[in-house]
Amino acid sequence: MTINDFKRIARLLKESYKELEDNGILVASDEYDKLVALIRDKILAMNGFTLEEYRKAKKQYLKEKEATQKEKKQAKRFNSLITKQTKERVTKEYVKNTVADAIKKNTKPPQVINKIVKEVTIEKPKIVETVREITKKETYDDRKLWEELSRLNKILSELNIPEPLDTEALEKKLKEEYESDFSALFEKSINTLNMPNFRKLGMGLQQQIDDIIEDMANQTEYKIDHAIDVILETYGVNVSVDKKKKDLLKFGRNPNVGSAATGYTIWATGADNAHETYVAANTNSIDSISSSTSGDTNITFVVEGHTESGGNKTFVTQSVTTNGTDGQTRVALTTPLNRVTRAYNNGSTAATGPIYIYENTALTSGKPTDTTKIHLTIPTNRNQSEKASTSLSSTDYWIITGFRGSMLEKAASFADVALQVRINGKLFREVEDVSCSDASNGIMEFNPYIIAPANSDIRLVAVSDSTSRDVSGGIQGFLAKVIS
Fold it and tell me: What angle do CA 406, 412, 413 make, to 5 degrees?
């Protein structure tokens, strides 16, 4: 795709997006995003181009545009400098110096000539005659000097040398004219179009909003493209966000965060364990679900997680229904897991809970006695797990755009929240951290985006100023699918 092809396609896309807005589709809605993707794919296909070709051409166009703008700025700055220097040179001081140089060049100082006549000796009678020194001034022709002075005087009279600028007076005058004339001029400009004022103003604002949205979309798309390039360079695989078509948001809460240096995972199981005790590689032993409330019967939950074989994780989604007689009775998962990352109530009956997903072990009132076997908790009356931790399959990369940390306390308190990533078979490493308090959240927006590779584990870990602090956090980003 050439640059001209890209411009033509971009114009078509912009017109199409404008049609969506004119038809009442909200820019911030999921429907708008889906329609934009569909329209873009169809227009590219109709013109014989792929999305990868379009993005590559767009990246080249943005680079050339940036270079052009840079050249224009440099040229403008150079012209401004030349103009300034020219004005500075044509001043009274300049003319004065020019006249002085001309006088020096064309004027010769008076010459003093000393002529001494040699002594003349006459033998008879011997008389020695000495001729006295004679001082004589040369006659000087000053016509050339007066001609040069006349010429310079003519140049000086023709010059239009401006008086020094009174910037304060000028600023005051402009301000007065602006305040008095702006309203009238603006009203006149609006009336020229013969439309209601609010509509014309709205059209101008809408264009500005459209330009801002387009610029933000271009920046986001550029960052995603850059992340895809980094994945190829670092891990040697080609990935696609468009073919995956899935966002990933992970959030959690831990009401028991303390001050220990080892930290506390932000997950609902925090009342029992600071961190999850991960299942060993290639072992799929997370196989059970039950509730601490006996009345939580016949409630269907969707459970998301991963199995692992040969060091590679596979994403699995399954449904499981609690016991029909007693919710505290264990029910086996259809597919045992190596990692469990999310669960939610998929029925119409609310669960009381808490609900536990765990490795099969002894229970006390529906809760595992050995709490290290618990890998996910749905808190009381939540119907949704809260675990700011996840894992990736062998075919997925997570392009992380940012994360946050929040202190859910009324009293004065604070905590540090860190994003940690563990590559398969290695240790957790901290990527970035933020600080939050009872007065403000800690928010990190990555630029460039952070990449979590395939088969890795990701989590948020908090450390607070005291014991039993209630901290929440979330991570967001785009999933990218390995395509080659």
Answer: 50
- Distance from C-alpha of 376 to C-alpha of 248, rounded to nearest angstrom: 18
DSSP code at position 267: B
Contact 418, 433 (CB under 8 A): yes
Residue 354 preceded by cis peptide, ω within 30: yes
More confident site: 180 or 12 = 12
Q: Which amino acid is at 302?
A: V
Domain limits, the chain: 92-158, 239-250+390-482, 273-386
Burial of 463 (0-12, 13-18, 19+ CB in 10 A): buried
Residue 85: what residue type? Q
* Cα–Cα distance, 256 to 278 (Å, whole number): 20
Find where tokens 């590779």 sit. Answer: 453
The strand pairing partners of 460, in sequence order, are 419
- The band of 120, judged by pLDDT with boundaries at 50, 70 and 90, is very low
- Model pLDDT for residues 274-319, shown as the tens digit of each residue: 999 999 999 999 999 999 999 999 999 999 999 999 999 999 999 9
- As beta bridge partners, residue 376 has 357
Q: Which of 74, 76, 140 is nearest to 106 (CA)?
A: 140
Count other Cβ atoms within 10 Å, centred on residue 375.
28
- The closest of 214, 250, 212, 227 to 446, measured between CA atoms, is 227
Instruction: Give 270's contacts (C-beta < 8 A, 6+ positions apart).
Output: 253, 254, 255, 256, 257, 264
From the candidate CATH numbers 2.10.50, 2.70.170, 2.60.120, 2.60.40, the one assigned to the domain spanning 239-250+390-482: 2.60.120
